[in-house]
Structures are given as structure tokens and as C-alpha cells.
Design brief:
464 residues, alpha/beta, eight-stranded mixed sheet, 17 helices
Length: 464
């Protein structure tokens, strides 16, 4: 953490994202207004541990911050979408979680499910409250259960990480959200600044480091946060039972006459790539990033967007023509499962020579990562649509393909293995690679005849 990183109060953080906020948890009565189930606990002097001076510390924190607890809960409209908004007050005992914090969070989540509202958490916490001991630590179980129940109810959860976000708050409300955004320079990590190893690199405990490690979806300047939050809430709150339509082809390419010509078309540097298709097909989009296991892959673009034709939300997982890394497959699986839970149709764009097969990819679990995508597509109840836009290299490409709803562009091919590798396995000389490509029947029209794709999409003809 540097001096340049602002630490917003709970109310200042709320003002960053919305001009209107209605508090659900009033001073002195944190749960009755939001349908808390069960009796409100009676707290003895100095809390459950009788920690000497605890009540005085709470009173000083309340006087200093104007809050009765370390979290403020309420409702607000962000970008036109009604939401339950949770904001931590770090000035109140370091934004720590105690029993009363757990009461407020549980009630807020219950209200969100009752009213069918998404949850946005503006997190700034140092962890669990020491003065309440294990009674404080078990609040993480309460929070995790509420988050899980809300997830099972099909409601989106978005976290915004402020400075600092550490300990159990990061490991539940933060890292457990569907979309994780962070403010620049914020301390983010399970270990707080006072409990890290003495030789720990402080740069590893930042929002930017967590983004690079695949644990955060985006680092967002405060001025951009309201618009991006509004977009995310819009995207994730619009379910649809209709499949995403396959985009039209972007290149006016004739169907290839030979298998090798199909390979050449797909490998052409002039062929439109995934970004061009997403730009042409979606009016607005927001990306997720990272596999939540320590990795990212720029060769797999994942996120949600608004269709230009019809305005519906679709999720997308798009290969960019490179060999896909294990982190890319895991990110795609995360995207597909999130879309499935929120009942949002999925569009996948297949374009890869195959899965990365270097030693590092094997160490990162390429086989398990590919299996994860196969499983996510197979289990999806939301409709999945696939467009083959370039190379379809073996199982690394097939993992993203919808079994009964895959389409192809004229400048694409799909093969059990690249023709060069097939010839090598069959111990054929290099001059037989072209003939091998024909034997494999990899042209778009061959794929239709074989029943692998439903059809070949045509380019949109501009009016003459």
C-alpha cells in the first residue's frame, strides 16, 4: 500500500457508485428491518470473550465513523438495475467481521433472495475481529453459506475490492463473487500487512498482482466504476432461453476446393479473428479474466455482451488463434458455468491450432483443464452456440464446441489432428501432407456432410 491509494469510508464508497442509497440496517437495530430469522443475540459486557475494553473500542469506533458496525447494507439503483449494496467501513475496527457484522450480512443476503436482487459488495476489511475470537471467525461460514444460497438462487454477485481487502473478507465476499473488480493499488490478499513473512514482496499483495494471477477480473479507476458496475449488473440480470445466433462470416471467402486450401484459408494472416467477430456481433461487452487458480491466457477471451440484433445478453468464450493454455480452458469453464447458473445463452468461437502442449502446460494440468471445459459444455442447461471461425485443431478446439449447434465459416477447417502431424504419425513424407489433408475431410462442406457442423454461415451482403 502506498500513500497515494485512497481509503474510502463506507458512505464515500457508496457515493462512488450510486447517487441514491436506502439503508436496510438502521443504527441500533441491525436486522429487524430485513426479515432476520431467529432471535437477535444478546451481547454481554465486552463481547463473547469478555475482552477487556472491547465495548470502549466499539464506542470510540462508532463515534469516529458515525457507524454502529463495520458494514453498511442497503438497496440502490446502479446503472438502472436495483441491487442490494454492501459497503464495509474500514474505520470501524479495521472493517473486521464480528457477530453483528455477520447478522447484517446474513440479513442483506436474505433480502436479496427475497426480492430477487443482485448483490454488490464494496469490500474493505482486515479480516475477523480478534476481540470476539472464534465467534468472529465462524462468521465466515455464515457469509459463505449466504453467498452459496444466493448463487443457487441464480442471482449474480459482484465484488469491488477497496484498500485493503484481506483475510476472510477476501476469501468469502471478495474471491467468492461471480465478478471481482478492484480499485487501483488496493491491498488484496489473504495475508494482511502485519502477518506476512518479513521478506514478502509487497507488490504481490496488490490488486494488480491479483489480476495478473487470475484472481481479479479487472482493475478499475474510481471514475469508471459506476458505468462498469452498471454494465455488469445489466448483463448478468437478463436471462434468456433463446440460443445465441451464430454470427455471419466476416470474410467473403469461397469454399475451398481442397483440404489444404482450407488449411491455408484458416491460417491466413488476413482472416478475421475473434475480436473482429465480437466487435461486429456485440454492442457492448465486459470481460472476465483469469482461472482463479493462478493463471490467465490472452488467447481466450471470455465475458458477457449485448447482441446488436435484439439486445439480449449472451456470454462468450472465444479463442484467438493461438494454442490455448490450461488457464484459458479453466476461464472458459468458469464463464460457461456462470452463464448456465444465470440462464444466459453462450456463444463460443473456436479458433486454435490446438491445446498448448509444452512442458509447462502439462505441469499446469492441460488435460484436466480441457476435461473441465468438455464437462461444462456437456452439463450446460442454457443453450450453447458455436461458430468455427478459423482453425479447429483436435480436442483443444472440440472442447468448446456445442455438440448439436456448431456452425462454420467458409474460411475454417476442423480436423482430428493437423495434416502435418497426421502425416508424421503415419510416417508419410512431407510431400504427402496435402493429400493427407484431403483424406481427413476437413473442409467446411465436408464437416456438414459428416454431421459435425450444422451449416456454413454466409457473409452479410452489403446493399448494392
Amino acid at each position: 500500500m502506498t500513500e497515494a491509494v485512497p481509503r474510502y469510508t463506507a458512505r464515500e464508497a457508496i457515493d462512488l457508485v450510486t447517487p441514491g442509497f436506502t439503508e436496510l440496517t438502521g443504527p441500533g437495530d441491525p436486522v429487524s428491518q430485513v426479515g432476520h430469522v431467529g432471535p437477535v443475540r444478546e451481547y454481554g459486557p465486552d463481547g463473547p470473550l469478555s475482552w477487556q475494553g472491547y465495548e470502549e473500542s466499539r464506542a470510540r469506533a462508532a463515534a469516529r465513523t458515525g457507524e454502529e458496525e463495520s458494514v453498511v447494507c442497503g438497496t440502490a439503483e446502479i446503472g438502472g438495475t436495483a441491487t442490494v449494496l454492501i459497503s464495509f467501513e474500514f474505520g470501524f475496527l479495521g472493517g473486521s467481521l464480528g457477530e453483528r457484522t455477520g447478522d447484517r450480512l446474513e440479513a442483506a443476503y436474505a433480502y436479496a433472495r427475497e426480492q430477487r436482487l443482485p448483490v454488490v459488495s464494496l469490500v474493505a476489511t482486515g479480516g475477523s475481529r480478534m476481540q470476539e475470537g472464534m465467534r468472529a471467525l465462524v462468521q465466515l461460514q455464515r457469509v459463505a453459506r449466504q453467498s452459496t444460497l444466493t448463487r443457487e438462487a441464480g442471482l449474480p454477485q459482484i465484488a469491488v475490492l477497496r484498500d485493503p481487502t484481506t483475510g476472510g473478507g477476501w476469501a468469502t465476499l471478495g474471491a467468492g463473487a461471480d465478478v471481482v473488480l478492484a480499485l487501483p493499488g488496493a491491498q488484496v490478499g489473504f495475508a494482511g500487512s502485519r502477518v506476512r513473512p518479513a521478506d514478502a514482496d509487497p507488490a504481490a499483495y496488490t490488486a494488480e498482482a491479483q489480476l495478473a494471477a487470475g484472481a481479479v477480473d479487472a482493475v478499475v479507476p474510481p471514475a469508471e466504476l459506476p458505468e462498469l458496475l452498471g454494465l455488469w449488473l445489466h448483463l448478468l440480470s437478463r436471462p434468456s432461453a433463446e440460443p445465441a445466433p451464430p454470427p455471419p462470416a466476416l470474410a467473403d471467402t469461397d469454399l475451398p476446393t481442397t483440404g489444404w486450401e482450407a488449411v491455408g484459408n484458416a491460417r491466413s494472416a488476413q482472416r478475421p479473428r475473434a475480436t473482429a467477430y465480437l466487435d461486429a456481433h456485440l454492442a457492448r461487452r465486459a470481460a472476465i479474466s483469469g482461472d482463479r487458480c493462478g493463471g490467465t491466457d490472452d488467447g481466450m477471451l471470455c465475458g458477457f455482451g449485448v447482441l446488436k440484433n435484439g439486445g439480449r445478453t449472451v456470454a462468450y468464450a472465444a479463442q484467438t488463434g493461438t494454442a490455448t493454455r490450461p488457464a484459458g480452458y479453466r476461464t472458459a469453464a468458469r464463464l460457461i458455468r456462470l452463464a448456465d447458473r444465470l440462464r444466459i445463452p453462450v456463444l463460443t468461437l473456436v479458433d486454435t491450432p490446438g491445446a498448448a502442449n509444452d512442458a509447462e502446460a502439462e505441469r499446469q494440468g492441460s488435460g484436466a483443464a480441457i476435461a473441465d471445459v468438455f464437462g461444462a459444455v456437456a452439463a450446460a442447461r442454457t443453450p450453447v452456440t458455436t461458430l468455427l471461425i478459423g482453425e479447429g485443431g483436435s480436442g483443444g478446439a472440440l472442447a468448446l464446441a456445442a455438440p448439436d449447434n456448431t456452425w462454420a465459416t467458409p474460411d475454417s477447417y476442423f480436423s482430428v489432428i493437423a495434416p502435418e502431424l497426421a502425416a508424421a504419425i503415419l510416417k508419410r513424407p512431407p510431400e504427402e501432407v496435402r493429400a493427407t489433408a484431403d483424406q481427413l475431410r476437413i473442409r467446411p462442406q465436408d464437416l456438414v456432410d459428416l454431421g459435425v457442423v450444422r451449416g456454413i454461415v454466409k457473409p452479410v451482403k452489403s446493399p448494392s
